[in-house]
Design a protein that fits this description.
The chain is an alpha/beta fold. Helices cover about 65% and strands about 5% of the residues. The chain starts with a helix and ends in an 8-residue tail after the last helix.
Length: about 625
């Protein structure tokens, strides 16, 4: 691809109006994942000759696959209208759009329009849609066509490798793999073999080799097939559905490395030693679960184990009513709770990973590990730690500029400069915005990148731009409790109190072990509506020592209630942690709230005894 990009650059330098040169430059940028350069090259290629259907259809497809689905689909439809005799592959964009949205019937009808027998994707798309729709005969026919015309693509892992070059959304790739497996596409034995000693091949050697490679790379997670007892078909379907949906949910977190379900399928019907399974798969962490039914009651037990040490990191038991008609409702109830508890930024896995790298020097950390330093920083915030991690992330993006998570976390560190006054340099929010935009360019479907962009826009008071980015962040990963809570608080503080508090409340239901700051929106909203007792009650439930919002809101609420002794005590706690607060109270509160609410809080603090500087 680098040679392709060099050749394409040479073409456009020789002739800046050469559409083919710009098309191939866009293609090269896309496949090396330089999305910031890809998009303008693609738009330039389209504009040079919008009647060239082949070029425009390819650019539209790549625009869609890079995350701009609305633009890509609309452009493809326009191109197909130009030429009713267009080749069938043009339909690929619409197929993927329907498929990613779970519209499998619509996707299947589009796939059937491709009518290119020797084009392997026409059969794979039909197979994936039929697999999801449980149409086994049609799926089998598609696989037989694949066997006839493109037998090399009868291997799921080969197909995964191929489609992952095109599709940037990991969750969509896994959903396609899921459809193929449901259709009956097999994992190829060849993919499980490597050359063994003496020139032969050994399936077990391949498994060991792939596992060893993962182990060297770091924090891989495997979800073993959930177990159940008896021959209950509904229980079997629920066990399979929970496993699939948990893998898919975990895959939405850009900073987690989740082993594909196909690689763990062999553990479905056998007793498992978790540490041995982890070693074989190359997984540092292994999740397993079991289902037991007694009459109309169901017990789901889930545990997460560090396969290296054998330590149990987390276990939970969920008791629910059970009937065959409620299988999907049970999945929708349990999967988000399990995924969020384990995976979000304050979840079991990031906390364990942060601890695992704590004794490493910054020079030893990979860019991937540097992200977990930020998660650890937000658990133990201090100016010195902030300075160290900011330097680490700046070095990481210099050395590996295509790491979206590193750019996203660097953007949050720049925003922290403004929010907390830590290690201030010029224009922290300008730098935060630029870093967040870079993160989104690299990974448009990353909730972590989108969160960083929403945060920077909020504190820059670009509220009109902030709201749609916040809503997109929520849509990208609704199982991310930490991000959901933060977006809810920002939406509330931006003026949409009812919606924002409801979003934050949903985050609290996702993970019963959430950090207390999730309640901040509820606290401030109660104070805003002059329900001071409710504000104090909610603030005391935060239970985060050193979190200055607790004494601040308590001092203001007690002041409004005329409870002088309690107000002065809370004010003393506030000033002990933020001695400069009286001088800069209005400025600090103004970062978050509209002027009327700022003055309302200042009024309460004044009644508590704070002498806030005018305009400060």
């Amino acid at each position: 691809m680098e040679r392709a990009r060099d050749a394409a650059l040479r073409a456009v330098n020789l002739d800046p109006a050469c559409q083919m040169g710009w098309e191939q430059l866009a293609v090269a940028h896309y496949f090396v994942r330089d999305l910031g350069a890809f998009r303008p090259a693609a738009e330039r290629a389209i504009s040079l000759n919008p009647r060239n259907g082949s070029t425009c259809a390819l650019m539209a497809m790549l625009l869609a696959y890079s995350g701009d689905w609305d633009r890509g689909v609309a452009l493809t439809e326009k191109i197909m209208a130009l030429n009713p005799h267009h080749p069938g592959w043009y339909h690929g964009t619409a197929f993927m759009d329907h498929y990613r949205n779970g519209e499998y019937e619509e996707a299947l009808q589009v796939a059937k329009k491709i009518t290119m027998p020797e084009f392997h994707w026409s059969h794979l798309q039909v197979a994936a849609a039929c697999g999801q729709l449980n149409r086994r005969e049609e799926a089998r026919a598609a696989i037989e066509s694949l066997r006839k015309y493109s037998p090399t693509f009868l291997d799921v892992e080969k197909c995964r490798e191929d489609i992952a070059k095109w599709i940037l959304d990991d969750a969509l790739v896994e959903r396609l793999v899921q459809g193929w497996r449901k259709a009956g596409l097999d994992d190829s034995p060849q993919q499980e073999t490597v050359v063994a000693a003496g020139g032969g091949t050994s399936p077990s050697a391949a498994k060991d080799a792939s596992g060893a490679m993962r182990a060297e790379e770091g924090f891989w997670l495997a979800v073993l097939p959930f177990k159940y007892s008896g021959a209950n078909a509904e229980l079997a379907a629920l066990a399979e559905g929970l496993t699939e949906d948990i893998v898919t949910g975990l895959s939405r977190f850009s900073y987690l490395r989740v082993i594909a379900q196909g690689s763990t399928a062999r553990f479905k019907s056998e007793a498992v030693d978790v540490r041995a399974a982890g070693k074989e798969l190359g997984a540092r962490y292994v999740m397993e679960g079991s289902l037991r039914q007694a009459g109309g009651k169901l017990r789901v037990a889930v545990q997460l184990v560090d396969a290296t040490s054998g330590a149990h990191l987390w276990a939970e038991t969920y008791d629910r009513a059970f009937s065959p008609e409620t299988v999907f409702e049970l999945q929708d109830d349990l999967v988000p709770r399990i995924v969020s508890t384990v995976a979000d930024q304050h979840g079991i896995l990031p906390r364990s990973m942060s601890e695992a790298i704590r004794n490493k020097s910054d020079a030893q950390l990979s860019p991937y590990e540097a992200v977990f330093r930020v998660f650890g920083l937000h658990e133990r915030m201090s100016p010195q730690e902030h300075a160290d991690v900011r330097e680490l992330l700046e070095r990481a993006v210099r050395n590996t500029p295509d790491q979206s998570d590193c750019w996203a976390m660097l953007a949050t560190l720049y925003s922290d400069e403004y929010m907390f006054g830590f290690n201030l340099r010029p224009d922290p929010l300008g730098r935060a915005l630029a870093a967040a935009q870079r993160a989104v360019e690299i990974a448009p479907a990353s909730a972590l990148a989108s969160q960083a962009l929403a945060q920077s826009l909020f504190f820059r008071r670009e509220r009109q731009a902030f709201r749609p980015v916040a809503e997109r962040t929520l849509a990208l990963n609704p199982m991310d409790g930490a991000t959901t809570a933060f977006m809810g608080i920002l939406l509330a503080c931006g003026g949409d109190w009812e919606h924002g508090c409801a979003v934050a409340d949903a985050a609290m239901r996702l993970n019963p072990h959430f950090p207390g700051w999730y309640r901040l929106g509820v606290v401030v909203n109660a104070y805003r509506t002059r329900d001071y007792h409710a504000a104090i009650d909610a603030a005391h439930r935060i239970q985060m020592p050193g979190y200055f919002w607790t004494p601040l809101t308590c001092a203001a609420a007690y002041g409004q209630l005329g409870e002088s002794q309690a107000a002065q005590k809370a004010l003393g706690e506030l000033l002990a942690s933020r001695p400069e607060f009286a001088r800069a109270a209005r400025e600090e509160l103004g970062k978050w709230f509209e002027p009327d609410l700022v003055e309302h809080i200042i009024e309460g603090l004044g009644k508590a005894g704070l002498d806030a500087a005018p305009g400060g």
